[in-house]
Amino acid sequence: MFALISRRLRVASLLVLAGAAIVSAAGPALAQQKLLTLDDLFDPQKRVDFTGTVPFGITWLDDTTYLWLKTARPSGGGPPGMGVSGGELLKVNAMTGATTPFFDAARMEAALGAMAGVTADEAKRLSRSGRFTMNPARTTALLTIAGDTYAYDLAGNRVTRLTSDPAAEDNPTFSPDGRLLAFTRQGNLFVIDVASARERQLTTDGSDALLNGKLDWVYEEELYGRGTTRAFWWSPDSARLAFLQLDQRPVPEITLTDHIAHRQSLQVFDYPKAGDPNPLVKLGVVRAVGGPVQWVDTQRYTAQEHLIVGVGWAPDSKRMLYQLQDREQTWLDLNAADPATGATTTLFRETTQAWVDRKDDEQLAWLKDGTFLWVSERSGWQHIYHYKPDGSLVRQVTQGDWEVRSLYGVDEAGGWVYFGGTERSHIGADVYRVRLDGTGLTRLSKAEGTHSANFNPSMTYYIGTWSNLTTPTQTRLHRADGAEVRVIEANALETVAQYRLSTPEFLRVPTRDGFQMEAMVIKPPDFDPAQKYPVLQQTYAGPHAPQVRNGWGGSRFMYLQLLAQKGIVVWVCDNRSASGKGAVSAWAAYKRLGQTEIADIEDGLAWLARQPWVDTARIGISGWSYGGFMTAYALTHSTKFAMGIAGAPVTDWALYDSIYTERFMRMPQNNPEGYAAGSVVAAATNLTGRLLLVHGTMDDNVHMQNSVQFAYELQKAGKSFEFMVYPRSRHGVSDPMLAKHLNTTMLDFTLRTLQPAGAGTAATPPTGAR
User: Strand pairing partners for 467?
Assistant: First the structure.
């Protein structure tokens, strides 16, 4: 669950985390508007599109042209691209919007259909997938056919077989010059010459346990990002590859069981829990033409366990930069290595009063003189710093009690650095530019809300997206100074006006020590301040993972509106460590997960209790993943909640993975008090309120062991609760019919447990519902 959180604000909850607000449809036609149903939101054949036409998959080809993957709209409803893998790849003139097909899909289909062993259906699927790995010149696309890799020449309409091996090729990646293709197979790193299809094996010691160029589970999930297992990086001159070697042999295994198979099938993989041995890591460099591996010198770190958390190259290919941290991530060294000798120089060390987060590739930008920009939160707020090639500081470029969240790039000719940040609002995001010397800070985006930017190569234009509380995502082309050139997609989502929706309200709620928590409340559409309403708090609460956001939420967040239509006040309040108000706020949770959060959550409830329309005897809480932990923690460490829905919760931090947990809690032997205080399992006897536990049986992230151990202790303590499991489901319930069942179950439980006494079954909604 946590890799995307550690990636700054990309939340991994499943369905009902309240990160956005929904438009009001108040007006004279209110009585004629419809109410939401679960079918509208979750039925695969009936769901309604609450996203609209947002151009996904935009990639600049040059300064005036971009690629756009136009995805199909599923026949059963829902937003474009949902439930379909196909689409049309279009080339778009950025200035005029004129589009042409990027390639002739029918011609590709015919070429593939003429190949032996390729069915007509497969040829059609491949040619219309729209999602291809392509060479930098975008003249060749990769295809996987029967487990092997093929190259399709877009202009020449030729298909060339590159591999012929029963084992799969993972993460095929073109070299910067496009001549070579690197991939991993069975733990080893390979390179193929695309023109001749000649294959070279660059490492030979790989296996299922010793991975060269491929990430293991915990490195993928918590460091390099879910979605790819690639752990090799081409040098800009295409001459070398840097790669990680991960030795999983010391790592304990975890076993998951598929109970649906006639004979239960097992999935066994390496998973280090807090305090367990991590995979042993080395960083190597190898020439693309083959030869011995040059291992990077990390001898100075052998006295302690370490992680290699980021790898990249200087533009001239003469230095490889890598980020190395101690196991508990209390510091981070940015190192430069000589690729020929492996000799290492430390440019600087990052430290804070708590933990240090690794930096993504986009948080470092090179300048032509060899200096570079680096994003750091050492001050407690993430900002941009300018460094010389030797790691000495030139200056801090941005500063203030706000965050830089995206470093878009540098226009050296104009002297500008472009970035996304929160200078105007902690619950929004804007596009800015500033001079390299730190002067001239300018906000380019106009309307309040959530903005992002996708700049062309010369940083002269950008495609900007924007949404706010009441406006679905819009897309526009802007000049680099923010001036609008044209509307790419206005996205007038007429669907929304058909429903009777409430306008959520933003507010700030002080904690007992004065911290201003951001909050959002959604009241029933026919709200009567003279009535008493039940409240359901939607939570995530994990470090630096805010849920209150001035942006459009789309279909999944409409579930909150459905709850409001049932007569329930929806409450979202970001505790300080989850607030997004700088690392300085997140550090409050250090070594004490759960403790700071519950104090802030109770302070939010104290504000609610002062509102005359709140029934304090009917307050519930619900969350998934970290939010599931927080829900279970609230029901065992507070007496304020009548009910809670804990989805896929961590119930004891000793059960969760090493890299995430130790970042915030340190190793168990170094923080036994924090682990004991953060355990839901140990506090099971203190359960108050009604509990619904939910877990996927094949969750490879937060293992169902968490919920089973909690259930076991609840049973021994004589506590009643409800437990729903979803066979074959991972950390999210992705099967459409199971997802509908999940949300039906959660809604039923919410209505049953938050109704006033004697109100009947779930078929009888609470007061105020329709």
Answer: 450
Which of the residues 625, 658, 679, 707 is marked catalytic?
A: 625
- The pLDDT tens digits of the residues spanning 254-300 come to 999 999 999 999 999 999 999 999 999 999 999 999 999 999 999 99
Residue 534: strand, helix, or coil: strand
- For the chain, the farthest-separated pair of C-alpha atoms sits apart, in whole angstroms, at 79
Question: What single letter denotes the amino acid at residue 606?
Answer: A
Instruction: Report the helix count and the strand count for the chain, using DSSP H and E.
Output: 13, 42
pLDDT digits (tens, 9 = 90+) for 193-250: 999 999 999 999 999 999 999 999 999 999 999 889 999 999 999 999 999 999 999 9
Enumerate domains of the chain plus CATH numbers.
3-45+497-502+513-570+602-754 (3.40.50.1820), 54-136 (no CATH), 155-358 (2.140.10.30)
pTM exceeding 0.85: yes
Mean pLDDT, the chain, rounded, equals 92
| Closest listed residue to residue 520, CA positions, set 453, 607, 599, 444 | 607
Is 687:655 a contact under the CB 8 Å cutoff?
Answer: no
Please confirm, yes or no, whether 625 is among the known catalytic residues.
yes
Cβ atoms of residues 477 and 461 within 8 Å: yes
Beta bridge pairs of residue 69: 89
d(CA 536, CA 642): 10
Reference 288, options 205, 194, 150, 214; nearest CA is: 194
For residue 46, the tally of other CB atoms under 10 A from its CB is 15
- The per-residue DSSP string of 151-197 comes to EEETTTTEEEE----SSPPEEEEE-TTSSEEEEEETTEEEEEETTTT
Q: If you count them, how many residues does the chain have?
A: 770
Count CB neighbours of 189 within 10 A.
26
Residue type, 102: F
Q: How many CA atoms lie within 13 A of 175 on its CB side?
A: 23
Look-up: residue for tokens 């999930």? 221
Distance of CA 158 to the CA centre of its chain: 37
Report d(CA 539, CA 751) in Å as an integer: 18
Neighbours of 128 (CB within 10 A): 17
Provide the b/e sequence for 310-349 (b: ≥16 CB within 10 Å): bbbbbeebebbbbbbbbbbbbebbbbbbbbeebebeebbe
Residues whose CB falls within 8 Å of the CB of residue 496, separated by 6 or more in sequence, listed in order:
22, 23, 25, 50, 472
Catalytic residue at 237?
A: no
- Out of 170, 658, 699, 707, the active site residue is 699
Residues with Cβ within 8 Å of residue 633, at least 6 apart in sequence: 594, 597, 598, 678, 680, 683
* Interatomic CA distance for residues 39 and 18, integer angstroms: 20
Catalytic residue list contains 401: no
Tokens of 599: 């104090």
How many alpha carbons lie under 13 Å from residue 215 in its C-beta half-sphere? 23
Calpha distance 559→16 (Å, rounded):
7
| CB hemisphere CA count around 590 (13 angstroms) | 15
Interhelix angle 558-565/736-754, nearest 10 degrees: 30
Distance separating alpha carbons of residues 477 and 486, to the nearest angstrom: 5
Confidence of residue 756 (pLDDT cuts 50, 70, 90): low
Spatial neighbors of 27 by CB under 8 A, at least 6 apart, are none
